[in-house]
Amino acid sequence: MTQHVMVLGGGVIGLSCAFELKRRGFAVTVLEMGKCGGQASGAAAGMLAPYSENVEEPDPFFRLCLQSLLLYPEWQLAVKEASGLDFEYSATGSLYVMYHEADMLAMKSRKLWQDEHDAASELLDSAELRKLEPFIAPEAIGALRYPGESHVYAPGYVKALEEACRRTGVSIRDGLERIDITRWRDGVEVQAASTGETYRGDTLVVSNGAWAGLMESVFGMAIPIYPIRGQICAYETPDMPVRHMVFCSQGYVVGKRNGTLVCGASEDIAGFETTVTRRGIARLESWNGKLFPFLGGMRPFHEWAGLRPATQDGFPLLGRLSVSDSVLFAAGHYRNGILLSPATAAVVADLLEERVAPGLPLQAFNPERFSL
Question: CB-based contacts of 369: which residues, under 8 Å, 6+ apart?
Fold first, then answer.
């Protein structure tokens, strides 16, 4: 008999898990309170940059991110084929820009350990940087280049994931408003507030992002996942003056094929509020003109915000509950949900097939670790 998996949450993680599980022969139902991809997923800049965004050490989180980057070329093709939809996947590489000589030592140290993990990075001086990015600020003295990093257009990717799920036979129930888990220790039963319907299955995958933190009383354990509002803006740049993903200590700028230049991200704690604030966007405007001076005289044409599910220690909750074979967690990916979607989907599917990829330090992501 085919095992029925219910996936709680229709963001990029939930949809990715659903797609991978369906590909492996499971019956899958996605349960979503609102609309698929409506929060952090669709609002993301879509960067696949484990080297640029993990700068301290090759910890388990970095290793998971790197594994996911390596899965992306095949994964994005599978999503496109299954959905019949195209979306941007650009292997532009990235630059982490330096402004001070003191930054050079830190960059050399980072390069040393990251190259042991196949970064193939390159330290650029000022002249070399300007050959790659002619419009960079004159104050920039160099950069660390990562040729293997890439990015996707997040709204298109999430839309394609949802369509891939639907076309392959995943049942998606959205607009459910509130979802109550009424049984989970031996099999799963879930009730939807908007329809009054009850859904039953063998296994539940909890992947509802920032809302997972509200379920501590359901599972009787600490789930320190908190919503962090990330505000982003975009500029119209039809001639696309920026060729790479460009990072600095204040944030990032990345150009998309549709002629928009995305700048992010300004973060604050605002509960589940997703409105855009002038103060949040002003933070972005205060530094992006120092990275690319041409932005100093421009106003964004689009501003938006999404909720990022941050955990207490920065690692996602990923794995089975020890007290129930019926529940797995895949939540709390913070800023890296887009990047981690294929690796997380693979881990969830492997666990349900009773196999785990060798060398993956899953214990570091134990969903019960805050209750031990």
Answer: 313
Helix (H) or strand (E) holding 231: strand 225-236
* pLDDT tens digits, 296-330: 989 999 999 988 999 999 999 999 999 999 999 99
* Two tokens, residue 362: 């899953």
C-alpha distances in Å from residue 322, one per residue of 189, 219, 360, 368? 19, 11, 19, 8
Q: Max Cα separation, the chain?
A: 65
| Residue 180 phi, psi dihedral angles, 5° rounding | -110, 125
Chain CA centroid to CA 11, Å: 10
Q: What is the pLDDT of residues 92-105, one digit of tens each?
A: 999 999 999 888 88
Domains (range + CATH), the chain = 4-82+154-223+314-371 (3.50.50.60), 91-148+226-311 (3.30.9.10)
Residues 6+ apart with CB under 8 A from 64: 340, 343, 360, 365
* Pick from 198, 282, 288, 277: nearest CA to 242: 288
Tokens of 67: 């594994």
Report if pTM > 0.85.
yes
